[in-house]
Specification:
46% helix; alpha+beta; 752 residues; 28 strands; eight-stranded mixed beta barrel; 25% strand; seven-stranded antiparallel β-sheet; 25 helices
Amino acid sequence: MPQFFGTYNESAIMLLILAGIFLIIAWVWRLHREIERCEAALQAEEKLREEKQRSAAQIKGLMLASPDPLITMDHHGIVQVASYSVETVLGWKPHEIVGQNARVLLPESDYPQFEELLDHIKTSGKLNQLGAPRDCFAKRRDGSELPATVSLWEIEQEGSDSLFICMIRDISERVESLAKLRLYYEALNATADSISLVDIETFQVLYVNAASCKALGYTREEMMTMDVRKRVSDLRIDNRSYTPEEVAQILLDQGGIDSIEIYRHRKDGTKFPAEANMRVFSSQGRQILVTTARDLTERRKLLAELEWMAFHDSLTGLANRTSILRSIQKSLDKKAPHCFALLFIDFDRFKLVNDSLGHEAGDDLLKQISQRIRKSLRGNDITPARLGGDEFLVLLENLNCPEDAIRVAERLEDILWPAYQIGPHSVISTASIGIVTNQHHFETASEMLRDADLAMYAAKSSGKACYRVFDETMRERAELHMQLEEQLNVAIERDELVIAYQPIVSLTSGQLDGVEALIRWQHPDYGLIMPDRFIPIAEESDLIIQIESWVLDRACQQWVDWQKNLGDKAPKCVHVNLSRKQLLLPEMVQRVADVLAKYRMPPGSLHLEVTESMIMEEMETGIAKLKELRQLGVRIDMDDFGTGHSSLSCLHEFPIDVLKVDRSFVANLKNVKDYAALLEAVLVLADNLGLKVVAEGIETKEQLVLLQSLDCELGQGYFFAKPLFAEDLENFVHDFHQRIGNKTERVTVGGY
């Protein structure tokens, strides 16, 4: 029993020891687990702390590095941190914005959009993802606004609420660029030129503007799907043709081509000319061709019209001066043996038509003249032209002989002679024609034109309504004309002009009635030059006014001297000729009054002679001036009566005192009975009107007797005396009175 008990106790003790050991092991294991758990917790806490530090560092780094304003904020939008760029872009210092609601950075109108974006981020459940950028406006600290995009995203934080980051990006430059691009696009579509972009290797259309679509009749979609080569043809550079592929290669080699001419094809199948400028540039590895094309249809039409205008007369449609000179020069340059001629046509009395009926009537006359010339002269070898004014040219080529030109001139005279109907008026305007042929070996067209002009003036000088063929003497006379014109300018200063006086005699009493002052030019080289040689030159150059003023002054002075030297034998009056230009001078009447006052000459002793054509050409003004002169007491003579264009029915309207019958009446008195009858009628009419009559050009005794039988009162001519210089006239007066005395019977004595 004790052994058993002893044994039993030991076993119990052993069990107790074993149990204790197990308890200790369990506690140690549990303690180990707790230690491991604590270590894991410490590690997790350290990791979180590190992550927070890393996140804060990242945010801080982002805040420092970002050029765009960045802010962090909580769920309520309160700013926690602000980047330095907030100050540079928005004008806020970072510490000023912290603690404020982020809405202060936005205009009030954009608040709803910002709130909507923030709510979307909160409720989307997609953390750490960038919120969709929203275009809006940001507000600077000074209240100004700038275009911007606002982006929001959420960053989750362990153990705390999520953090929201807001980025505000200034998009002013982008908005401005887009605006410019929009303007460029609008400008491209607004331009009238066609603009296109094409891949030069594939000929694929990349862009066309509205003008290109309109010009060709395609939609933009249709053109974008077409091969550009199908829309063009006839490509020409410097008048040489090229294929599209050849042009493409030139463009790749040179980079561009200016002024290439092409034909563009419309959708309806028609085509039109265009001028294009082409340039090549690289974009994303592609060679892009930019083409600007302009429709040449209107330009070519305009150029054609301008070319026509440049070589045609706008009034008549005939070739103009430039054109006919080119044709003449072309014929001269051929140096061919064939004969050709130039006709220079000038129309007589055209100025009278123009001045009396108006310029419209003158233009109508020129049109009718050109129609007659055009209809009567047809053929490839005949070129009619209008030189200007009433001057026309006709170039006759491939003539068989020079006489052919004369036959054409004669035909033109016949065609141009009949009257022209100008409104209610029937107008006659005959032609004076000058003819010159290439037989004179001209080098230039101007030379040939010059000599044709000289021949025309010779025709006018020959009585008009005729033709003359050029010869070398005409050029010599023209050269002399030029020399005289140059020297006439100084003739007065050199005292080369002199006055001759032709007596005017009473045919009833045989007494000296007056003298006519006739100018002469005592030229140092050419001797005494008659007025018909230099007065026309003076009239062309306006020297006539200066010359006639000098004649008026000298003649009045001479008359006064004769009154002192000759007494009762002196001429009763002096007759001085007036030109049209002198008569129409505004100060003409005052000039005459000044000369009369200067020499204390009785106004009735001065006769001023005008032609009836002068009065008719400027009827209203001329008559008014003559009336003013008569009011001074001056006598007015109508010179060369019977050769002008006046009507006897209006003779009573002219303020005149004397009719001077032209010498042609006197010369034909004996041989032509009608002249005597006509002269008798003039004398009766003059007597009824209270006018004196002077018969000019009395050269024979028979003429004198006939005039006396018709009771003509006064006469002048070589039968009595040629024009005499002042001293010779004084001798003539003494001799004349010694021989004639105061006889009142008919003059029967021979002249001097």
